[in-house]
Amino acid sequence: MSETATPAVAWSDVDAGVMTITLQRRPANALGLPIIDGLNAALDAADADGSVKVIVVRSDIPGFFAAGADIKHMSSVDAGSFTAYGDRLRGALDRLASADRISIAAVDGLALGGGLELAMACTLRVGGADAKFGLPEVKLGLIPGAGGTQRLPRLVGRGRALDIMLCARQVLAAEAHAIGLIDRLVDAGTATDAALALAAELCTMSLPAQRAVIRTVDASFDTALEEGFRFEVAQEQDLFENGEAKEGITAFLEKRAPRFS
Question: Of 32, 68, 106, 117, which residue is the catalytic one?
């Protein structure tokens, strides 16, 4: 499989609906401007290719998914430049989170600070047994400012999120799985393979239906229950109108694999 690359990020040609984005900025994938620009370039490529259904984000550096923000860069800028840097990082992660497709973080090793924020921006997270997670920004007199304070409580609840952030503690993979920070726990060193297998499974299903599920679940955090029910009905109606539901039901009755769009 061929790849396109910037100095810090590579991305694969689409294979059966799956694009792999690989972080490769040594020594620890610090999320400085090279990775931010590389992520945006990879997402541009995904946007330009209508066949992408699932993106897998992984690391090519043993022991690290991504160890956090680029502290050397942070130390050399003023408040205005730091805010601009944070906005660029958050913008790239928001693109990943809001992309009209599924994304999976394959985490082996450390996912700290911005690295965990990157993983949390993905739709799903697969963690190897050796993975460690944390948002230690308070040790630097900062907060997790690229979405961490917002996404972590949505995944693990307010109390657990505060415990992790206020104490700047690292969460081991088993605990991360138990509290919902990662969705699947696999053997150490196998997160990428497991994420690719999950991606292949997801690609057999209706992407419009998957998008509708994600939109409806996300809306539940910001709407009253009755309003959420109405949104759910509207999404289901759309699936009937665009033919996805008809194809799925017909394929089930005909005992064949569905041919989803």
Answer: 117
